[in-house]
């Protein structure tokens, strides 16, 4: 605060700009203060604040007021930053995929138990019966289940409906959030990759070679520790061009697809829009990889 | 520090995370908080009503809420969004917690907010634990205290904790802090060591 004016520079604090002659308090609105703090943080040369300067500056009257104002601004800033992170990370998609997987698990477990129960009361019932296409074991049991079981079977059936609904929702959400990946691999595969990687950001910074074996953890680690042949594919196997390819071509298709997916997810995460030219070239590259002898 | 029948407690509005209450005070469980464990194991460290605290690795705000009961203000830094959601709820119901969503490894981001403090508490489970403390020591007043909760398993699971502790000690000294005390946190937390440091 002292010294000759010529050596004196303006110092910016969250509560105001302090020069050696004058001082200009920042507007007291917490929203604006939050913006100001963000701005100062971005400049990276901020000085550590001192509440006594704020009082001298006239920005606040007391220590209590200093802390109150800082806290209100910090709360708003943290909320804004949090919202922004949640938006860019799209962690909702990952949660949807995990819910889908756990629904599967739960439905299977409950179905198993229901079959055991049903068998205990209906000696003629066997699961080794050919099911009419598209109809589930559950529906079959419901035809002659005893009263106590019937209600539960209905619930399981409902869960199955929810499950197919959720699958469509996952796919649709993935097409929004991961347009390029979804166009290349299908929404469900794209979503599963993101979930396995732990998030879209995590997937976007992943090398293509890691992406290729995502979901083949057991095979990968058995390769690393005991030298079994390395896995050619994990989740990407679910893509039609990979599991539809001839055996000797499958590795190449998986590799090409993963390389293109790695680029696609980067476009999805950083540019956030579909790139038609890239998609055309990528699809063509994957197709060629499967055709070569 | 306040003790009731051998339980460490803090005075403040309860119901932050389902903590037990004792004569209207919040029981500060050593099994849920490393700082509480440190007090149970015996330490000179004291928190006073005029203390300013920089808390790195605030997580869900469990320990933060107890520290806030004792001191004037806590600057609570946490990088992960999920725990931050909880921390914001805790900070919303208390006047003296200033939440900061930032990486403690990049103190430049929150430099415009955090004033000089009397006490730095570092509980970030990162392989760069010591470097993070040193990077934040610019916020520490002369004569101020820093507590580093060193989790040897976060630095390297394969090496014996003792080696890691002595390496950390050298790193702290090189960083310009004096070591007042070292406390093993067993049996509450195995392979943890609390370093009490001072900036002269």
How would you characterize the overall build of this protein?
The complex is a heterodimer of chains A (293) and B (200). Chain A is mainly α and 293 residues long. Chain A is built from 14 helices and 3 strands. In chain A, strand 1 (11-13) and strand 2 (16-18) form a beta hairpin. The model of chain A has no long low-confidence stretch (mean pLDDT 88). Chain B is an alpha/beta fold and 200 residues long. Chain B has a single domain (30-198), classed as Vaccinia Virus protein VP39 (Rossmann fold). Chain B has 6 helices and 11 strands. Classes of the chains: A mainly alpha (293), B alpha/beta (200). The interface between A and B is medium-sized, with 26 and 26 residues.
Structural class estimated from helices and strands of chain A: mainly alpha
Which percent range fits the helix content of chain A? 55-70%
Task: Classify the secondary structure makeup of chain B into a structural class.
Answer: alpha/beta
- Give me the side-by-side strand order of the main sheet of chain B: 7-6-5-8-9-11-10
* Count of β-strands of chain B: 11
- Indicate the mean pLDDT of chain B: 93
Tally of structural domains of chain B: 1
What oligomeric state do the depicted chains represent? heterodimer
| Contiguous uncertain segments of 5+ residues of chain A | none
- Look at the structure and name the CATH superfamily of the largest domain in chain A: Nop domain
Strand content of chain B: 25-35%
Count of discrete domains of chain A: 3
Radius of gyration of chain B: 16 Å
**Biggest β-sheet of chain A, characterized?**
3 strands, antiparallel
Q: Mean pLDDT across all residues of chain A, rounded? A: 88
CATH architecture of chain B: 3-Layer(aba) Sandwich
């Amino acid at each position: 605060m002292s010294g000759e004016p010529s050596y004196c520079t303006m110092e910016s604090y969250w509560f105001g700009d302090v020069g050696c002659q004058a001082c200009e308090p920042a507007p007291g609105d917490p929203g604006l203060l939050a913006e100001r703090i963000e701005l100062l943080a971005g400049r990276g040369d901020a000085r550590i604040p001192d509440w006594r300067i704020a009082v001298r500056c006239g920005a606040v009257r007391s220590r209590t007021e200093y802390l109150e104002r800082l806290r209100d601004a910090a709360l708003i800033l943290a909320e804004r930053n949090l919202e922004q992170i949640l938006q860019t990370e799209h962690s909702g998609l990952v949660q949807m995929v995990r819910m889908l997987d756990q629904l599967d698990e739960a439905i299977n477990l409950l179905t198993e138990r229901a079959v055991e129960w049903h068998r205990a009361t209906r000696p003629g019932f066997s699961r080794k019966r050919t099911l009419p296409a598209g109809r589930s074991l559950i529906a079959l049991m419901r035809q002659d289940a005893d009263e106590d079981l019937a209600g539960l079977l209905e619930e399981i059936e409902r869960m199955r409906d929810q499950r197919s609904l959720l699958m469509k929702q996952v796919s649709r959400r993935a097409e929004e959030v991961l347009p390029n990946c979804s166009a290349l691999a299908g929404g469900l595969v794209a979503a599963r990759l993101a979930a396995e990687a732990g998030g879209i950001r995590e997937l976007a910074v992943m090398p293509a070679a890691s992406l290729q074996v995502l979901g083949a953890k057991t095979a990968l680690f058995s390769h690393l520790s005991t030298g079994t042949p390395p896995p050619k594919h994990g989740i990407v196997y679910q893509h039609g061009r990979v599991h539809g390819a001839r055996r000797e071509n499958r590795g190449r298709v998986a590799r090409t697809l993963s390389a293109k997916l790695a680029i696609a997810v980067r476009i999805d995460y950083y540019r956030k829009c579909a790139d038609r030219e890239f998609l055309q070239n990528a699809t063509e590259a994957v197709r060629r990889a499967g055709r070569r002898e | 520090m306040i003790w009731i029948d051998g339980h460490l407690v803090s005075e403040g509005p309860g119901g932050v995370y389902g903590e037990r209450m004792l004569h209207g005070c919040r029981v500060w469980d050593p099994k849920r908080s490393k700082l509480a464990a440190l007090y149970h194991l015996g330490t000179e460290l004291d928190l006073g009503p005029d203390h300013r605290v920089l808390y790195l690795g605030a997580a869900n705000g469990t320990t933060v809420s107890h520290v806030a009961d004792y001191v004037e203000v806590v600057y609570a830094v946490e990088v992960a969004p999920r725990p931050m959601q909880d921390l914001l709820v805790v900070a919303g119901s208390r006047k003296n917690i200033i939440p900061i969503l930032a990486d403690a490894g990049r103190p430049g981001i929150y430099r415009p907010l955090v004033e000089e403090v009397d006490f730095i508490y570092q509980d970030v489970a990162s392989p760069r634990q010591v470097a993070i403390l040193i990077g934040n020591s610019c916020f520490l007043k002369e004569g101020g205290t820093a507590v580093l909760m060193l989790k040897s398993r976060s630095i390297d699971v394969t090496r014996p904790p003792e080696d890691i502790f002595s390496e950390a000690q050298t790193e702290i000294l090189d960083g310009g802090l004096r070591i007042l005390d070292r406390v093993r946190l067993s049996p509450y937390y195995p392979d943890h060591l609390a370093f009490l440091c001072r900036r002269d």
